[in-house]
Specification:
The chain has about 325 residues and is α/β, with parallel strands linked by helices. About 30% of the residues lie in helices and about 25% in strands. Strands 3, 5, 6, 7, 8, 15 and 16 form a seven-stranded mixed β-sheet that branches. Helix 2 (about 115-135) crosses helix 8. The protein is globular and about 60 Å long. The termini are close together. The structure holds NADPH dihydro-nicotinamide-adenine-dinucleotide phosphate.
């Protein structure tokens, strides 16, 4: 099969499109023929070396397609089932096929097409745990959502609106601002030009927000901290601009007895029941039309390098897919 491999860490040029052996499923695994592959920012951290991986390696943690073969102990799926995976522990979704533990793959409902699944499963299940379990967003609550026009950000904005929250979205361009307004954002801050904390204080009448979702990291850390209301919650869940600085306990006191958390999806999907419930909640949001999944960029698998270049240069909107 054809697949993306990397032998060393570095820029997008280390992604090589090569011929490798098609994997065979172990007793508890399924072999999936990919029809669409989701591109996620985490894969740029793995490629660059920010998140170390054993090399040489494949790359990618999100794909959707059809089950081609099942291991002898698998009862959850049969050949021909439409499935998707997200957040697999062994990166390798940037390929024509992958094997996954059957317990870590999800069945696709009839109304969810494979491209939508590949674009939304990892990003949408991230939003699910961030808005419903890490913190239970309530109607009327004001949230700060950074990078709101991105893959995760668009789903978060719409889901938060469906829960009745007031969304203050940040984006990097006027085009992205227009998009998040269409998706329901109540207030939009152009964080490359405006002072985030000053704008948030203005919008909230000086109070600040009770919850801030920050996936940008280094560049937004200070502004996020200063945007929080007393006893507010800082959810740091990504590093698109680089890792945020260390947090000092004292800073949290001075900010008004703040809470700080740095979650990752795996810790909110420790069982197959948690995985299935998270995926079901997402599919329900998509199926009901409350969350629309924008596939802003589609590339042939061979062009994974271009997908990474676009994502890291902030040129993308919504989700990006690779098509084998
Ligand atoms: P996005 O589509 O959101 O792309 C990242 C966006 O971040 C860019 O489009 C850009 O939007 C913004 N950004 C701000 N500063 C920079 C910068 N210096 N370089 C590049 N981008 C920048 O990506 P994803 O939807 O794939 O992921 C969003 C975030 O969520 C990532 O940080 C990712 O790691 C995190 N994540 C965390 C998970 C977890 O479990 N903790 C799971 C899944 C994702 P703009 O132009 O508007 O500034």
């Amino acid at each position: 099969m054809r697949a993306i491999r990397l032998e060393t860490t570095g820029g997008p040029e280390v992604l090589q499109y090569v011929e490798v052996e098609t994997p065979s499923p172990g007793p508890k695994q399924v072999l999936i023929r990919h029809e669409a592959i989701g591109v996620n920012f985490i894969e740029t951290y793995q490629r660059s070396g920010l998140y170390p991986m054993k090399l040489p390696s494949g790359l990618g943690g999100e794909a959707a397609g059809v089950v081609e073969a099942v291991g002898e102990e698998v009862t959850r799926f049969k050949v021909g089932d439409r499935v998707a995976t997200a957040g697999s522990s062994s990166p390798g979704a940037y390929a024509e096929y992958s094997v996954a533990l059957a317990d870590r793959a999800v069945a696709l409902p009839d109304d969810i097409d494979v491209r939508t699944a590949a674009a939304a499963l990892l990003k949408g299940m991230t939003v699910e745990f961030l808005l419903r379990r890490l913190h239970r967003v309530e109607a009327g609550e004001t949230l700060l959502v950074h990078a709101a026009a991105g893959g995760v950000g668009q789903i978060m904005t719409q889901w938060a609106k469906a829960l009745g929250a007031v969304v203050i979205a940040t984006v990097g361009s006027e085009k992205k601002a227009a998009r998040v307004r269409e998706l329901g954002a109540d207030h939009v801050i152009l964080y490359r030009a405006q002072d985030v904390a000053a704008e948030v204080r203005r919008i909230t009448g000086g109070k600040g927000v009770p919850v801030a979702y920050d996936s940008v990291g280094k560049d937004t850390f200070e502004g996020t901290l200063k945007s929080l209301a007393r006893r507010g919650l800082f959810v740091s869940f990504g590093n698109a601009s680089g890792p945020p600085p260390p947090v000092e306990a004292r800073q949290l006191m001075l900010g008004g007895s703040l809470f700080f958390t740095r979650p990752t999806m795996g810790d909110y999907q420790t069982t197959t029941a948690e995985l299935d419930a998270s995926a079901a909640a997402l599919f329900e949001m998509i199926g009901s039309g409350k969350v629309e999944v924008e596939i802003g960029q589609t590339y042939p698998l061979a062009d994974a390098r271009k997908a990474h270049e676009a994502l890291e240069s902030r040129a993308t909107i919504g989700a990006s897919l690779l098509i084998p």
